[in-house]
Amino acid sequence: MSSKTYQFPKNFLWGGATAANQIEGGFHEGNKGLNIADVLPGGKGRLNILKEPGFNFEIDKEKYTYPNHEAIDFYHRYKEDIALFAEMGFKVFRMSIAWTRIFPKGDEKEPNEEGLAFYDRVFDELHKHGIEPVVTISHYEMPVDLVKNYGGWRSREVVTFFERYVQAIFNRYKDKVKYWMTFNEINSGLVMPIMGLGFSIEKEEDKYTPTFQAFHHQFVASSLAVKACHEIIPDAQIGCMIIYAPVYSYDSNPENVMYALEEERLFNYYCADVQVRGEYPAFMKRFFKENNIELDIKEGDLALIKEHTVDYIGFSYYMSRTEKLDKSDQKNADGNIMAGVRNPFLKASDWGWEIDPTGLQIALNQLYDRYRVPLFVVENGLGAYDKVEEDGSVHDDYRIAYLRDHIAAMGEAIEDGVDLMGYTAWGCIDLVSASTGEMSKRYGFIYVDKDDEGRGTLDRSRKKSFCWYKDVIESNGEKL
Fold it and tell me: Reduced to 3 states, what is the DSSP secondary structure of residue 128?
């Protein structure tokens, strides 16, 4: 990237992003129930365990560790953390509400007052420091009881339970939260249904029908949430949230170009098309036919989806993705749940995620050209090993370089005419990695003293990137 300066909108929403299950801890406090994240084992093998059929959603402490149970103890330390966010100058803080703090089992008639009161305190503390919350309603935190008793999002009944949940939080926080998102990285269910859809695929089971039926239930639930938000909090904005990774063809072979297009449409656009355009995209008709998928769509579902579309698109961007029809002679790349073949033009992070800031400019242009609604980069960051020096400092120049290049790419996209609302850097404070359950995969501007075995003081300290990001926000992106 060049050293040019960029003009970001005056009301640009600078901040950081987290998820309840990755920071809060207190997994049994305040009458909270068990959610999916609470039963996910820690360690580099987490994703492989989750991809195996028959995951039982039970805790087995003799076999695994569960770092999400304590996480970084935001549940007790939120005031300290919010003060640090305010010191950096955050305009917004993206967080999620743990569904099981509000409805511990998921199917109760009345919400849990202790859970509601906790988020009252968090929102009040944010507003005390002039920070607007950006709240994800469901961020890989489905109640385990809904998984075991109903089959997760396979079940139409879960739509009713979700609607009850959103009604409760909208009515409670209508004066405190003006930015909402429905399902975190909803399209991740195509690859990792356990975290997003609340079930594992069994060996004897056709994997497509339950997955796409679950998606349909989520689309209905999302539309009901949009409807409720617009009715209860008319001055609020509610968006969808997707993983977005531009899909490049490995070369100019038309077969590879077509394959990349098919992968991009299914992963990047299918879920967004339904939630933003309000209808199933035409390309899915062929996909459903060729894969013998017949959805149970109730009367009124499609009209509901058409009428209640989201106000903006929130998305995570960590990398692009390169695809080749025949992968037998190519090395695979690692990535955020999904991955393709290695791109020879890109370097990778400590965890093998390819680094492509230009891909963010491409992503913003592709999304805005297709949808013409405001965009919000709600996740972007570098997971890396950080070394603490003898004086306690962390010189994370690699993180600064990564973020600088990606923020510059956003500046370029704004010059291209993209309507970009804001940017919340992922893991603004070190947290438990969603993909591996590790603490050593650090993203934050704030270091948290805890290791992969759960040892440490949990003390917070500022990294070099903390001061850099403070300057970025203070200069509204001009000082990179």
Answer: helix
Dist. CA 9–CA 150, nearest whole Å: 46
Say how many Å lie between the first and final Cα of the chain, rounded: 11
Which amino acid, 29?
E
Q: What is the dihedral of CA 479, 475, 398, 126, to 10 degrees?
A: 180
- Alpha-carbon distance of 360 to 426, in angstroms, equals 15
Round to whole Å and give the CA distance between 154 and 164. Answer: 18
Contact 87, 469 (CB under 8 A): no
313 sits in which H/E element: strand 312-316
Contact of 267 with 336, CB cutoff 8 Å: no
Asked if 144 and 35 touch (Cβ cutoff 8 Å), the reply is yes
Give the phi and the psi of residue 68 in degrees, each rounded to 5. Answer: -65, -20
User: CA–CA separation, 205 vs 252, rounded Å?
Assistant: 37
Sign of CA dihedral 67, 72, 77, 82: negative
How much is the pLDDT for 1? 47
Residue 266 amino acid letter: L
- Torsion of the alpha carbons at 231, 233, 237 and 242, rounded to the nearest 10: -70
Judge contact between 426 and 408, C-beta under 8 A.
Answer: no
Domains of the chain, each with CATH number or no CATH: 13-474 (3.20.20.80)
DSSP annotation of 282? T
Place of tokens 């704030």: 446
Low-confidence ranges of the chain (pLDDT < 70): 1-2, 203-205, 335-337
Rounded-to-integer distance, Cα 153 and Cα 271, Å = 15
Q: Check 354, 379, 412, 438 and give the catalytic one.
A: 379
Q: Which of 212, 271, 268, 265 is nearest to 239 (CA)?
A: 271
Q: Is 379 a catalytic residue?
A: yes
For residue 343, give the DSSP letter. Answer: P
Of 319, 318, 353, 327, the C-alpha closest to 425 is 318
* CA angle (256 as vertex; 254, 259 as ends), nearest 5: 110
CB atoms within 10 A of CB 130: 10
Q: How far is CA 242 from CA 136, 196, 256, in A?
A: 12, 11, 24
Tell how strand 13-17 and strand 92-96 pair up.
parallel
pTM listed for this prediction? 0.97
Q: Which of 168, 169, 68 is nearest to 123 (CA)?
A: 169
Tell me the C-alpha distance between 3 and 85, whole Å: 27
The one-letter code for the residue type at 143 is: P
247-266 pLDDT, tens digit per residue, is 999 999 999 999 999 999 99
How far is residue 142's CA from residue 149's CA, in Å, rounded to a whole number?
12
Per-residue model confidence (pLDDT) at position 202: 75
For 384-448, the DSSP string reads B--PPPTTS----HHHHHHHHHHHHHHHHHHHTT--EEEEEEETSB----TTT--SSSB--SEEE
